[in-house]
Amino acid sequence: MPSSVSPSAFSWRRSVRKTAAALLTAAMLAPHVASACTSFLIPTSDGGSVYGRTMEFGFSMDSKAMVIPRNHKLSSTGPDGKEAMTWTGKYAAVGLNGLGMSTLVDGMNEKGMAGGVLYFPGFADYADPAKADPAKSLAPWDFLTWALTNFASVEEVKAAINNNEVAVVKVIQEALKIAPPLHYTLHDASGASLVVEPIDGKLKVYDNPVGVMTNSPTFDWHLTNLSNYVKLSSVNAEPLKLDGMTIEPFGQGSGLLGIPGDGTPPSRFIRALGLTMSVEPVVSGPESVRLAEHILNNFDIPKGWVREKDQGDDPLEYTQWSTVADLSNGMYYVKTYDNQVLRGIDLNSFDLNAKEIVSAPLNSEITPPALPMPKS
User: Which among 26, 30, 33, 37 is annotated as catalytic?
Assistant: First the structure.
């Protein structure tokens, strides 16, 4: 006798099949350079917040550090290569660019709002530029710069999107030869977090109560997936008593037994959440920055750990750089694959009313610096 299926169960199964098909399509279509970025926000013990993220790619992003001053005239690129949306930035911002563009892929503004651009293969669906108002149209890689130079909080960004003040349209990026599939994470000085994803030609906005974000699938899928890990805890598990026998856990960390350790976006999302929810908060400043760095170290990808079956001469994906932003003190830090020393940029030390963008290369240093030792 065939079992009955409730309408809700049917809808759930159909949703699972649809998601699985989308993931398969993403796997087939995504280029080998698809990134595996991980981002998070951790609170400090004095009411502040620290943001951290990694940037993975299969070929050099050639990123440079940038400071964009206040009142700087900025513009986005349209699908025909002509200028699309233009605006004058209200706030100064610091961060990193990529591929030689004068736009931020990660950064923080003077009001303590920070965020990043993350890869979103198989799910990003931008607005049709032919149907969008060019004066409100942004290329996918310009959204973060627009947000950081115009707004002081995630609520302001959310309001602008809900008021249809901006559209992200499909534009081919010259170096990648595709319209890069992207979504965006934002955090402000109050500790509030936001995720923005281009879905069905529109920008879908999610409040982010966990502060964590990785890559595909969609953000709401990741939140649903948390139900598979409700027993994860930083507190060690109690011994199991079974028919008079006591089964003790092996060593420390048994509360996190089963936390995924692979590099897929769903697994990194869970692992990042497990770390951010369990670390002991410290005060804003160097202590919290170092704490964020320790979390970032769990997501560092060395060359060769992620590869295709028939890799050939295709570039290996690796962690090109990691950043930390101290939202309370206006400090932005970066370390690179070849230079694991965390280096800081004090946004408040710049002339924020300057006329030009300031940039500097992320010089690599493979040889570790010497540790001075007293001579006998």
Answer: 37
